[in-house]
Design brief:
single chain, 181 residues, mainly alpha, Arc Repressor Mutant, subunit A, two-stranded antiparallel sheet, elongated, WH-like_DNA-bd_sf, DNA binding, DNA-binding PadR family transcriptional regulator, Tscrpt_reg_PadR_N, DNA-binding
């Protein structure tokens, strides 16, 4: 998946500036995808060049002009084709697992600390996502629409993955403690 698909999905909700898109990425789907400001603006420029989006200048009265991006019919078609297309193999990057993979020479107490810190992080993230999901879930039920339901479902999937990792961390930590030093 490319960032342009993420941005097209957001632009189908409503026209947005690059700033608005970055803010939306950070506030609503950071559990699924992240990008820095430069990536967002580079991708937007490419999308405009490819005809997937257009830019409309909104004149500012007491503030600078805004460059608002709108999804085009071609952009909607590219998004639809991607949504209905085959699922690509996902590139996996697991920084914690790379640490574990390379941690064989650490002392037992250092290994236990490594896992204990990860456990704390996971427990905090799970609590945060549960609160976000609960708030969104209530809103989704009140709205009674598919889009809100699917947004809440992505949070649920993230929570399930984090809980599975937490279970693995606890189990691995327990097994580590039983190994000879």
């Amino acid at each position: 998946m490319a960032l342009n698909h993420v941005l097209l999905g957001l632009l189908q909700l409503s026209p947005m500036t690059g700033y608005d898109l970055k803010k939306h990425l950070d506030s609503s789907i950071s559990h699924l995808w992240s990008a820095d400001k430069a990536q967002v603006y580079r991708t937007l420029a490419t999308m405009v060049d490819e005809g997937l989006a257009t830019v409309h200048v909104v004149r500012g009265v007491n503030f600078p002009d805004r460059q608002e991006h709108h999804i085009t019919d071609k952009g909607r078609e590219v998004l639809r084709e991607w949504l209905l297309g085959p699922n690509e193999k996902q590139t996996v990057r697991e920084p914690f697992l790379i640490r574990v993979f390379n941690a064989g020479n650490l002392e037992a107490v250092e290994l236990e600390t490594l896992f204990a810190v990860r456990q704390e992080v996971l427990e905090r993230e799970i609590a945060e996502f549960n609160a976000e999901r609960d708030a969104l879930g209530d809103a989704a039920q009140r709205a009674g629409n598919r889009r809100s339901f699917l947004m809440a479902a992505t949070l649920e999937a993230t929570i399930v993955k984090l809980e599975a990792e937490l279970k693995w961390v606890k189990s691995t930590l327990k097994q580590l403690k039983s190994l000879p030093a």
